[in-house]
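Duplicate of earlier report; Metalloprotease input re-posted below.
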Amino acid sequence: MRLVIRRDDLVGIIKSAGESEGEICGFLLGRIEGSAVFVEEVRGTRNKLNSPIAFEIDPLETAEVLDEAEGKGLEVVGVFHSHLECPPVPSGKDIEGMDLWRNVWLIVTPSGGFQAWILENGEVKEVRVETR
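Output:
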């Protein structure tokens, strides 16, 4: 599996992570073709927890993003967030979230690190990230 995202979008997410005192979060909108996940739009959301070690997206904001994506003929293909003090690998809380949102999770760090993950059959697997 691979995640294909515009270089400018990935750089923008990483830049936002570096400018924030808390974890940033949001959704990746796009389409899935075979084993490729194509990101057409990045939609940042507010971290309801305003925390440097966790994030939560408001359910009403989630509903707005889902409606927005549908109106554009897109779907939510991924979730993104930042880790400020640790590597871009899923935490225990992330894995719980991955069990609810069964799509690609992109994790970035303020220093420019990034990795994508998916939970398949109870196993966390890395997803190759390609920029275009």
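Residues 2-131 form a domain with the Cytidine Deaminase; domain 2 fold (CATH 3.40.140.10).

Merging into the original ticket.
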